[in-house]
Structure formats: structure tokens, C-alpha cells
Task: inverse folding
């Protein structure tokens, strides 16, 4: 297996209606390109409506599995894209929050971009962690006990975070590298 190869790994992307399209599509493409199998999980089946800059419609994305029917044991890594509406939706669904909390407890890699860390805050898993995010949720991260930095990509143990869609090229490279560093589940 080559460096950065994700062959044999399955990555969950947890998203809800209002997800920022580019923050789902570019990382998913990078993961596919590295050989990963990727599943979009959500709080409902069917499709998600997506947005650009939170207000402009950007089509739909098919949901592969309802998060209530998913097991953290089925995934090698977790990706939380942003958009303001998406994580705000997720954090109101206990099953989504519990999935994130349980996934973090496995120690496997978790990546979040832009507003995506809001779901990590709701799951109460950021205390003592070093993270970055969109500027408007940094106070929430601090209040939840995180050390907040303003960096293009921040890697702290199992977490990989980025600030915004402008950071996606660096974020995508970092998640492929971080996800590949962990042995695939057997």
C-alpha cells in the first residue's frame, strides 16, 4: 500500500440538510481518489439539500444510510463537513451526537471543517483538544474547553480541523494522510 492510500478503509461523512456542498464534495473526492469507500450518513434517508455560503441552493446529495442504523464499528474515519445549517441540524438529533461521541471514543480519526466542529462541541469531546474552525464558532469551542488556533489545518491526535472552504486543498491532503496513518479495521 502506498503512502496516503486508503484502500480497504471506509469513511463516514455525517451531514444534514444545509451542508455546504463544496465541504462535502471536495473531501469526498479526495477520499475516493485515495481509494476509500465513503458513505454519507444523515438523520434521515433519501437526499440532503446542500448550500453554498449558507443561502444559495447547490443541489442535493444522496444519503447512503440513516445514522440511527449505522455502527461506529463500520468505519475507519469520520468526516464532519460544515455550513452553518448542517451542524446546527445535527446537534439537535441525539442519535447523531451519540454517533459522534461514540466514534471519538474509538480513537479513530475525525475531521471537521468550518462549522463542522459544532457537532464535536455538542458531543462534549473537545475539552483539552487543539482545534481550528470558522471564526464565529471559536468562542463555542473555547467554552467547551478546546484550545483554539487560527491555522489552515490543525492536527491534534485523532482530530484534523480546518477553518473554511478556502482551506480545503490543505484539509483534503491532511485527512488523506491522517486517515491512512491508522491501520484499516479488520
Result:
Amino acid at each position: 500500500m502506498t503512502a496516503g492510500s486508503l484502500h480497504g478503509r471506509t469513511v463516514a461523512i455525517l451531514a444534514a440538510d444545509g451542508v455546504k456542498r463544496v465541504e462535502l464534495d471536495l473531501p469526498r473526492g479526495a477520499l475516493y481518489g485515495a481509494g476509500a469507500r465513503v458513505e454519507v450518513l444523515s438523520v434521515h434517508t433519501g437526499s440532503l439539500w446542500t448550500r453554498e455560503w449558507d443561502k444559495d441552493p447547490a443541489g442535493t446529495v444522496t444519503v447512503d444510510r440513516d445514522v440511527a442504523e449505522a455502527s461506529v464499528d463500520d468505519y475507519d474515519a469520520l468526516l464532519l463537513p460544515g455550513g452553518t445549517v448542517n451542524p446546527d441540524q445535527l446537534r439537535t438529533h441525539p442519535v447523531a451526537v451519540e454517533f459522534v461521541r461514540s466514534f471519538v471514543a474509538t480513537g479513530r480519526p475525525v475531521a471537521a471543517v468550518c462549522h463542522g466542529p459544532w457537532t464535536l462541541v455538542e458531543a462534549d469531546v473537545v475539552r483539552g483538544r487543539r482545534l481550528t474552525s470558522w471564526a464565529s464558532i471559536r468562542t463555542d469551542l473555547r467554552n467547551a474547553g478546546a484550545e483554539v488556533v487560527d491555522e489552515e489545518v490543525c492536527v491534534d491526535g485523532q482530530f484534523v480541523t480546518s477553518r473554511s472552504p478556502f482551506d480545503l486543498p490543505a484539509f483534503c491532503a491532511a485527512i488523506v494522510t491522517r486517515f491512512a496513518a491508522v491501520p484499516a479495521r479488520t
Notes: Residues 21-33 form the longest helix (13 residues).
